Amino acid sequence: ETASEGYVMSYTVNNKEVCITGCSGNDIMLYIPSELDGCPVTSIAENAFSGNSDITICSIPDSVKSIGARAFSACPKLTTIMLGSSVAEIGDYAFTACPSLLYINVSDANKKYSNINSCLYENGDTLLLYAGDKDAKVYEKTKTIRKGAFFGKADITSVSLPDSVKTIDDHAFSGCLSMTEITIPDSVTKLGKGCFMSCNSLKSASIGSSVPEIPENCFHSCTSLCDITIPENITSIGDNAFYSCADISGIYIPPTVKNIGSDAVGKRYDTRANASESIYGFQIRGEKGSAAEKYASQHDIAFSNGKNTLGDVNSDG
Fold first, then answer.
1. Mapped to the 3 state alphabet, what secondary structure does the chain carry?
2. pLDDT tens digits, one per residue of 6-22
């Protein structure tokens, strides 16, 4: 350990290169030193500063080449990040769940990372971290939205995705508590696990025509979701994809869907019984002999043949 700009740094030395593993202290300014014990500081370890409740501004020097997964995650007061010219690797969720983060400054000399519209980008087309307005408009040349890019951004009310987006990674929008609707463009060919999990104000979701499957936990605990259509390009619905979406009274599952995972639709958690239960009045609509009918039978959920059922809104006959 060694004192540096108001903090006592913990670190390891390997092959004459220093890896920062943590710190102690309560200064609002965190300046990562470029050298310790006469050796260059080249990396920041996984979880090194995760959960630090004091850091407001963090400056990462030109000597640092890599930042580990979750290195600065869940730092509630962190508002500003300054990245040096040599950073060439940033781990998953490195800066996620930092609700106050508004400013990301990247050295103009950095060849891999950049600041575009106040957001952190990799290679100019992969969004690593969003730090813009509540009305989020993603940069028009974005191809990938990486893991946790919007994670925990509780103040975001809307998100506009351009047709350039191909991939939305795991938990990209998890915990966006104020987001009320999302339209996934037809250009998107992959959704990651839990990508809209716990967006509990989300009422409407439109899934594009190129998405082949709804992955596990995709809309898990979206408790306000009531307007959702599963298009016929979908072939699989993963485990718990719509778990605890209690405002959905029923859903049509097209015959193109061949696989439906455990507790994927029409189920929620019963705290009294400490177990999953069927949502009261929930109805699955589908075709005879389909995966939808089989799933309904296995999970004690009412099933109706066809796309629409008129009149019998609670499926009691």
1. CEEECCEEEEEEEECCEEEEEEEECCCCEEECCCEECCEEEEEECCCCCCCCCCCCEEECCCCCCEECCCCCCCCCCCCEEEECCCCCEECCCCCCCCCCCCEEEECCCCCCEEEECCEEEECCCEEEECCCCCEEECCCCCCEECCCCCCCCCCCCEEECCCCCCEECCCCCCCCCCCCEEECCCCCCEECCCCCCCCCCCCEEECCCCCCEECCCCCCCCCCCCEEECCCCCCEECCCCCCCCCCCCEEECCCCCCEECCCCCCEEEECCCCEEEECCCCEEEECCCCHHHHHHHHCCCEEEECCCCCCCCCCCC
2. 688 999 999 999 999 99
